[in-house]
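Q: Please design a sequence for this.
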């Protein structure tokens, strides 16, 4: 008898979600299924457009703004699954909807995220909670919900959109950097568990990206360096991540260099970051 892929102690509702996808490929369409969160705008919308152009993936698209999400879904021939991921219930409902529609999720692109900038002492407690809920908890919950059926099949892709802010820390973005830093630790730790399962995890770490992100957080991006890159460059990195073989991709690639400096000369790195950050 094959060992059950479900973690011990998984609640019944979550077990139903996982088992429905693990039961078999009968509901699978001709293309692999990718679930993209944050797809109503920014990086998520650009990822949807790029994957749609390639024609290889069946797209399940999640976002909070039903109007914008519907427009992206129409443009990309994707399926709109509007849901607020700030609660565990929202994540569970999204996983249920995705699996009910397609019978499986072959890849998860976790692109939903919120930002906030300013002195940490000025940050409202409710904003701290929402950043943690969307940037961290939603990712952990969704991975937990879609991973068992991937492990059961022996294949799958997890692509998490982090940020170089989580690697280096950024003045005026302490809480945001903390949420993105937690994804680095989560990805590094989960990879150990996924060895030999056929499921691959890649963490994409963009620098600043030219999207409505900064407008929505209420504080524009004013640093002269590094300059924002296009969402298209991040989407290209996500497509590369979905192809497999990479554990981590910085966008642009040169932003991986400061991480190496930080590793071998942390005091020098902090001095340079204090001066230029």
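A: Design:
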């Amino acid at each position: 008898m094959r060992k059950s892929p479900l973690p011990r102690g998984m609640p019944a509702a979550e077990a139903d979600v996982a088992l429905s996808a693990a039961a078999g490929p009968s509901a699978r369409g001709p293309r692999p299924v990718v679930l993209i969160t944050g797809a109503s705008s920014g990086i998520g919308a650009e990822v949807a457009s790029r994957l749609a152009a390639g024609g290889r993936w069946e797209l399940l698209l999640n976002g909070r703004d039903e109007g914008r999400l519907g427009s992206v879904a129409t443009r990309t021939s994707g399926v709109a699954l509007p849901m607020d991921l700030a609660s565990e219930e929202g994540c569970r409902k999204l996983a249920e909807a995705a699996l009910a529609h397609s019978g499986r999720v072959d890849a998860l692109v976790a692109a939903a995220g919120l930002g906030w900038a300013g002195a940490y002492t000025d940050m409202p407690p409710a904003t701290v909670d929402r950043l943690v809920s969307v940037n961290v908890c939603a990712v952990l919950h969704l991975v937990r919900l879609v991973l068992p059926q991937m492990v059961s099949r022996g294949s799958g892709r997890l692509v998490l959109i982090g940020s170089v802010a989580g690697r280096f820390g950024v003045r005026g973005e302490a809480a945001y950097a903390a949420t993105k830093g937690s994804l680095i630790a989560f990805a590094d730790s989960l990879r150990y568990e996924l060895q030999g399962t056929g499921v691959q995890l890649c963490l994409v770490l963009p620098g600043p990206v030219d999207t409505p992100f900064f407008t929505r957080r209420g504080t524009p991006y004013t640093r002269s360096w590094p300059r924002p890159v296009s969402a298209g460059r991040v989407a290209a990195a996500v497509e590369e991540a979905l192809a497999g073989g990479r554990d981590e991709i910085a966008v642009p690639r040169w932003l991986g260099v400061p991480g190496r400096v930080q590793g071998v000369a942390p005091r020098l790195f902090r001095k340079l970051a204090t001066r230029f950050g």
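Q: Thanks. Anything notable?
A: Confidence is low (pLDDT under 50) at residues 1-29. The first helix runs from residue 12 to 22.
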